[in-house]
Specification:
Layout: E1 2-5, H1 11-27, H2 41-49, E2 53-58, E3 61-70, E4 91-98, H3 105-114, E5 119-124, H4 129-137, E6 141-147, E7 153-160
């Protein structure tokens, strides 16, 4: 599998993957993290335009997508019930979704992000038990609670290499 930036031509596949991920979340006890329409088409288009959207593909077929942003994340400015491991420059992982056909996708994404910068921050919904477990297995430390743009809380994790 290889990781590459997403392009406008990828939009139909990217939208299908997010739709599948939303349904998987709902069926696994996490119906509110993305609801029925998150991430929005506008956000996905911005990720592509800003070159922070990525795809994992094999044999020219996309199996997973995510966003990886280097630099300050406004939703990470304030953290409650804890603190970040450090204040050094970081990258933020967002909007991870898979088509369900490949195992180990999140670990592959984390390895990719860790190859780009020494500090990675990521958040997830309190009901997303699978992601919480994988983050802990990969050495990510729970740091507290942040609030995303719609005002809902997320569990925040940080890894410093």
């Amino acid at each position: 599998m290889r990781i590459r930036q997403t392009t406008p031509e990828d939009m139909p596949t990217v939208l299908d993957i997010y739709a599948y991920a939303r349904e998987q979340m709902k069926s696994n006890g996490n119906p509110t993290q993305w609801g029925n329409n998150r991430p929005s088409v506008r956000v996905i288009q911005q990720d592509i335009k800003q070159k922070v959207g990525y795809a994992i593909e094999e044999n020219n077929q996309i199996h997973a997508v995510f966003s990886f942003i280097l630099g300050e994340d406004s939703t990470y400015q304030n953290i409650e019930a804890g603190s970040w491991l450090n204040d050094e420059p970081y990258g933020t992982l967002h909007r991870v979704a898979s088509d369900g056909s490949k195992r180990g996708v999140l670990k592959e994404i984390l390895n990719f992000c860790e190859s780009k910068i020494n500090n990675i921050r990521v958040d997830t919904h309190e009901n997303n038990i699978v992601v919480q477990k994988i983050l802990k297995q990969c050495g990510y430390i729970y740091c507290g609670v942040i609030y995303v743009d719609d005002g809902t809380p997320r569990l925040a994790y940080h890894k410093s290499l």
